[in-house]
Design brief:
The protein is an alpha+beta fold. The chain has one domain: Outer membrane efflux proteins (OEP) (Up-down Bundle). Helices cover 65% and strands 17% of the residues. The protein is built from nine helices and six strands, in the order αβααββααβααββαα. The protein has a four-stranded antiparallel sheet with strand order 2-3-5-6, with no helix packed on it. A hairpin with a 5-residue loop joins β2 and β3. The longest helix has 68 residues. It is elongated, with a radius of gyration of 40 Å. The two termini are 39 Å apart.
């Protein structure tokens, strides 16, 4: 009977685990990556940015278009000739038909088209970075929900164990009462404590069910899907703040987005400066034209042929708007640099704050683990003594409550340590599971 409490825990845990399959953290993340709406939307946005990043969208390719114009009209016409004579014709028909193809190609615009192309490539990177941000954020959310469910499940096991022990206490007290070795008061106290533990267990089942619902929502599946998770929680004890800051500067999605935004603003400035230079455009085409007229010197004509040429335009003065636009673009570049510096500072502040919580939670986790082990041993000994009637019911209840409290605090400390780890890795831009 030395490890009687451990045997009860094993039986309770086994019964709960057999209710349905156990979902691992890795499996939860994989399901979310396939189904989560935020990730799917971000993936489509990234594809849109990829499709937009082409030379045609930047205006670097020629354009070719076909046109056709057909006009028909009927008129009552009167013409006065130079000699004074008149010619009249009712329902005179005048028809015209023009069709052809036209080719246009901007061959120089102050290198603005190249700046636009580079900008589109940066926007493509932006789409990919936003997708990464959505993935990192959602993975962190899933892991937080998962380990919260672990905590609620462990608490459910603890309270279920407390109910089992209280039932055995009630049975023992009742047996002792029947043989005259205990008073009715001891039985009643045992019943009250059992009812209290049962009430706590019922409330905990509600918290557990809500945690299951929250996780299922993130996994985008039926919120009523039963779910059991792994009992063990492995916390990474080897995170170093300096390494995290270095990694975050390279991989944090928010910092990367700020860098991309600065580059986009710089390319905007290049495009604005390109307006100082002439725009040279090649034009070419092949046209067909036919006309018919019932009244006039020429009743029918047609033509066809090839045309080509070059157009150059230069903005000489536009009311100082060019100077104003360049000044605004420069200020936008300056602002994006400020935002980048602000983002880096904010990131380092968050890392330092969360890292301090991480270290504190690691210490608390180790301390609460020892406290739980002591409380378990104490309850194990108390159970033995209670069975042979050498301690009071008050002493037994205190040992039982101390164990529940110690186990609850250990679960909470372990959960907080894991959440701190997840938060640090999310800020560093690399969430693992």
């Amino acid at each position: 009977m030395k490890h009687y409490l451990l045997i009860i825990l094993a039986i309770v845990t086994s019964n709960l685990a057999n209710a349905q399959e156990v979902l691992t953290a890795k499996e939860a993340v994989e399901i979310a990556l396939k189904n989560n709406y935020d990730i799917l939307i971000a993936a489509n946005q990234a594809k849109i940015s990829e499709k937009n990043a082409g030379v045609a969208n930047a205006g670097m390719l020629p354009t070719l278009g076909a046109t056709l114009t057909k006009n028909n009209n009927t008129q009552n016409s009167t013409q006065t000739q130079a000699d004074g004579s008149q010619r009249e014709l009712n329902n005179a028909k005048n028809n015209s038909l023009n069709y052809g193809v036209a080719l246009g190609w901007t061959i120089f615009d102050g290198l603005g088209m190249f700046a636009r192309y580079d900008q589109l490539k940066e926007l493509e990177k932006q789409g990919q970075t936003q997708l990464k941000s959505a993935i990192v954020t959602k993975v962190a959310d899933v892991l937080s929900a998962y380990y919260n469910l672990v905590q609620q499940q462990q608490m459910l096991t603890t309270l279920d164990t407390a109910v089992v022990i209280s039932k055995q206490r009630l049975q023992t007290a009742d047996n002792r009462f029947k043989i005259g070795k205990a008073s009715k008061l001891e039985v009643l106290n045992a019943q009250v404590d059992l009812n209290t533990d049962t009430t706590n267990l019922i409330k905990q089942k509600e918290l557990y069910a809500n945690a299951v619902t929250a996780l299922n929502e993130l996994l985008v599946r039926d919120v009523t899907t039963p779910c059991r998770v792994e009992e063990t929680v492995s916390v990474d004890h080897k995170l170093i703040l300096k390494d995290l800051m270095t990694l975050a500067e390279k991989q944090n999605p928010d910092v990367q987005l700020a860098i991309i935004n600065k580059r986009v603003a710089e390319l905007d400035l290049k495009q604005v400066k390109a307006n100082r230079y002439p725009v040279v455009r090649l034009n070419s085409g092949y046209n067909f034209s036919e006309t018919e007229s019932s009244l006039g010197f020429v009743t029918q004509s047609s033509s066809k042929g090839f045309n080509y040429g070059l157009t150059a335009t230069l903005n000489i003065f536009n009311g100082f708007l060019q100077h104003r636009n360049e000044k605004v673009a420069n200020l936008q570049v300056e602002n994006t640099q400020f935002l980048l510096d602000k983002q880096k500072q904010s990131l380092n502040t968050q890392l330092a704050t969360v890292y301090q919580s991480y270290q504190t939670n690691l210490e608390l986790k180790e301390l609460e683990a020892k406290n739980e082990d002591i409380a378990r041993q104490n309850l194990d000994i108390t159970l033995e003594k209670f069975r042979i009637g050498t301690i009071t019911t008050i002493e037994f209840r205190n040992a039982q409550l101390n164990y529940i409290t110690a186990r609850t605090r250990h679960n909470a400390a372990r959960f907080q340590a894991k959440i701190s780890e997840v938060a640090l890795k999310e800020l560093a831009g690399t969430v693992t599971f």
